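Intended use. Records like the one below are meant for learning the mapping from a protein sequence to its folded structure. Do not use them to infer anything beyond what is encoded.
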Amino acid sequence: MVAPRKYPDELRERAVRLVREVKAEPGASGKGACRRVGEQLGISAETLRGWVSRAEIDDGQRPGVTTDTLMRLAELERENRELRRANAILKSASAFFAAELDRPHR
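Structure written out for the chain above:
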């Protein structure tokens, strides 16, 4: 089960947009922009930096695996685990019933 998010999506989007605007100003750095916007919104600068990084990856501005791809990968891994578990159950059941057939009947 996924933990509830501490910050709403609207706040995340607004914070990322503000950091991008501040970074666009001449002489502004990424860390300084995250620190400044984070202080204004009550968000940790490192948390905000992670959001901005993820947004840049999702927008194709930075190399990396997009959020959609990560979600799809997690879904496929979950499905793979379930199928392996079902396969193991079926193997043990077939071994049980095969042993039953080999036993002499009274």
